């Protein structure tokens, strides 16, 4: 997975830009923005651009088939994060959207998401509108984008290490899809304290089957020298796992040195400041 290359290193033309403060709800005890926090930023950025461009009137329904998150240097709290979003490649029903994230106190993350336009009536992929396609294809490198899975490792057989998670109502979005960030919360749980997240790394999550509201899932995972892999299996009413996984995640190392610790916080304390109006 680490040898997969993005088609564009930077936006070749104007991109959609937003900035906001990093919030404490998105960071770990070391103040690093977690993978699920990054996924939340990507969703918010996509939502903001849809409404800003007016595409809620032509192309309101989308789902993410895959997200790739390359953490070259972690974002931290407190700081602001600036995001740049643009389209890298398209087909008639889907597209790859890139987002670059940079923090005001350091931090650099590159991402790519495979978005599918779907019909609310059929639940199936449908054509992107003419206006939407005209906008998306302004600076693309590829106009015949095809799906190819990256997480192709064979899942392990059931074992005593597997565990069950009852998903919460708050894990689901307005379309009753399991929120993209919720998947990566489980990854962060498994990798809590793991050195894999303390150096440059790539996380790839592919969504393979719907997970309905009210579901429980079985989590299977592997950790070895190549990295970390996780699969979610939907459980039926008797607690038996589905034959095939509903999602597949991998986290692998990228080239680079271990991350330096963030700047100390809080700052040196004084008796009085000139407070900001």
UniProtKB/TrEMBL annotation:
A biological-process GO annotation: fatty acid biosynthetic process
GO molecular-function term, one example from the UniProt record: fatty acyl-CoA hydrolase activity
Signal sequence bounds: none
Domain of life the protein comes from: Bacteria
Acyl-ACP thioesterase-like C-terminal domain boundaries: 164-222
Occurrences of domain Acyl-ACP thioesterase N-terminal hotdog (ranges): 15-130
Pfam short name (any one): Acyl-ACP_TE_C
Protein name listed in UniProt: Acyl-[acyl-carrier-protein] thioesterase
Lineage: Bacteria, Bacillati, Actinomycetota, Actinomycetes, Mycobacteriales
